[in-house]
């Protein structure tokens, strides 16, 4: 059942927001087609022809015209198919030139049903009406939506479309031809500019990242984030991947920010403690120095004393000073002990905060929903386990799992039920595996299990055991027992085989398992 059937009507902004969310959740590349499809799905409306479709229809209609126009129309069709908008703009230009030069020639006998009927006498035939309509739609739908970053050109396209609606004289058409030509030329220039800006921005971003990495020193907790963004820039950049990286970086940066702040405070406390410590040491040194001076003084006084009364006075003074020096020494000792304890406590706190920061760094390697590793974490594990397997000459297996009919579960019980099912699956896998085995989210509803030191028959048994456990630890959704199953492909690493090839073989075996009827485990060739 579609989710929107039970919901109150949504505004276009809400639908758009929801559409973006679904694109991200379903990990679908955010192409205009995919976005439109999901938008229609949420809004419950039927699709209108898109801008590209209008352009394609326009070209297809012209292909049926006379030879020279048909040839240009075929090129336009080709360019539209390749989404090469510059080439489209060039071909539209040529079509306009051709059409204008034909319009300037004396009229041949109009051949009904062909493009010829359009040229000299500017009479509104059905073909011309169609052509006019297609041109207007090309301008208002295709061009305007492509020119969101250039409002002036978009305005010109709109105003040109408006003019075409009412241009019925040859002079008006000529004028429009000129404006159209100019617009095509400017659009071409703008496309070049935008491509260059995009390239420059990327280079700037890369430069910035390289510089930040250079400055990091031992700030290893930040390296995780930087590496994540660098990975993203090195591959093809998709909207979904950008959203993913943005979300995970934001969360990690926030948590790290909080921890870093506490760490800074703790370090300041230690510094203050040390200052107090040194102050006290200084005070002790000064007071004992004073005391020694006084003792020297008393020695001289004692030597020159002329009687018991005078000696008694001197002794009284000496006792008082000694007592004061003793008190001062005791006070300093207590303060020093307290300061030392505070330093130790602050040091322990710093250690705790630093280890938390490291854990934060690990988050970059973790899938937020299920708590299993993500692709990045999986790559690290692969590298480690492949090296270990070579060193110890021990077998290494991987299993690629894909939930069966997961789309139906999502469609019937909703996305959050689907999410809970993924969390449940990972919990069952973790409960069933050994501690040295690792599970990672490979994408959507696909998971990979890495089984170190495991020969193929044992790996098959392990995955079959997970299947059995999944039927025992049944998934509950709103008090309903839902049976979830998966298909899996298991592959044993061949000597010298890299991660990509091993994964590919596991994937082929998984495909076999799906083809053979699902809910089964197949060993790779
Ligand atoms: N709830 C939820 N659904 C997801 C997530 N990631 C991907 N999906 C959905 O998983 C579904 C996968 O559908 P399909 O690729 O057609 O696979 P299937 O329905 O399992 O069919 P088979 O694999 O042939 O058994 C899609 O509807 C995705 O939207 C997620 O994180 N949460």
Automatic annotation (TrEMBL):
Entry EC number(s): 2.7.7.65
Entries under Gene3D superfamilies matching the protein: 3.30.70.270
Coiled coil regions in record: 329-370
One Pfam family hit: GGDEF
Catalytic reaction equation(s): 2 GTP = 3',3'-c-di-GMP + 2 diphosphate
Keyword check for Coiled coil: yes
Name of protein: diguanylate cyclase
Species, as recorded: Noviherbaspirillum aridicola
């Amino acid at each position: 059942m579609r989710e929107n059937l039970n919901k109150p009507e949504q505004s276009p902004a809400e639908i758009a927001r929801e559409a973006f969310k679904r694109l991200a959740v379903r990990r679908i590349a955010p192409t205009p087609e995919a976005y439109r499809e999901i938008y229609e799905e949420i809004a419950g409306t039927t699709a209108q022809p898109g801008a590209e479709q209008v352009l394609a229809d326009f070209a297809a209609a012209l292909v049926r015209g006379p030879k020279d126009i048909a040839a240009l129309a075929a090129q336009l069709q080709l360019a539209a198919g390749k989404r090469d908008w510059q080439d489209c703009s060039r071909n539209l230009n040529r079509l306009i030139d051709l059409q204008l030069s034909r319009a300037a020639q004396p009229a041949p006998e109009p051949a009904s049903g062909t493009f010829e009927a359009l040229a000299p006498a500017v009479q509104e035939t059905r073909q011309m009406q169609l052509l006019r309509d297609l041109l207007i739609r090309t301008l208002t739908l295709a061009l305007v939506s492509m020119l969101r970053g250039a409002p002036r050109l978009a305005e010109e396209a709109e105003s040109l479309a408006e003019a075409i609606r009412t241009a019925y004289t040859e002079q008006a058409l000529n004028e429009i031809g000129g404006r159209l030509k100019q617009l095509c030329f400017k659009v071409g220039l703008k496309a070049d500019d935008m491509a260059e800006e995009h390239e420059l921005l990327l280079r700037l971003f890369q430069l910035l990242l390289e510089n930040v990495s250079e400055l990091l020193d031992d700030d290893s907790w930040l390296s995780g984030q930087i590496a994540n963004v660098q990975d993203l820039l090195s591959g093809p950049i998709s909207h979904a991947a950008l959203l993913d990286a943005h979300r995970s970086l934001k969360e990690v940066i926030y948590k790290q920010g909080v921890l870093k702040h506490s760490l800074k405070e703790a370090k300041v406390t230690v510094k203050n403690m040390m200052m107090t410590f040194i102050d006290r040491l200084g005070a002790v040194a000064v007071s004992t120095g004073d005391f020694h001076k006084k003792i020297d003084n008393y020695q001289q006084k004692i030597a020159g004393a002329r009687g018991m009364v005078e000696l008694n006075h001197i002794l009284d003074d000496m006792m008082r000073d000694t007592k004061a020096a003793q008190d001062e020494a005791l006070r300093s000792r207590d303060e020093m002990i307290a300061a030392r304890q505070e330093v130790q406590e602050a040091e322990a706190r710093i250690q705790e905060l630093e280890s938390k920061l490291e854990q934060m760094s690990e988050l970059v390697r973790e899938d937020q929903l299920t708590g299993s590793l993500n692709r990045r974490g999986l790559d690290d594990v692969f590298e480690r386990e492949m090296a270990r397997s070579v060193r110890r000459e021990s077998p290494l297996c991987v299993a690629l799992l894909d939930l069966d009919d997961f789309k139906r579960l999502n469609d019937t019980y909703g996305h959050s039920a689907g999410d809970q099912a993924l969390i449940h699956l990972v919990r069952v896998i973790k409960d069933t595996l050994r501690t040295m085995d690792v599970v990672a989210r490979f994408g959507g509803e696909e998971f990979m299990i890495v089984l170190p030191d495991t020969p193929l028959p044992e790996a098959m048994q392990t995955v079959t055991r997970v299947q059995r456990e999944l039927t025992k630890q049944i998934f509950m959704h709103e008090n309903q027992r839902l049976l979830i199953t998966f298909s899996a492909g298991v592959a044993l690493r061949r000597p010298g085989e890299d991660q990509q090839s091993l994964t590919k073989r596991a994937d082929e075996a998984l495909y076999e398992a799906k083809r053979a009827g699902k809910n089964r485990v197949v060993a790779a060739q």
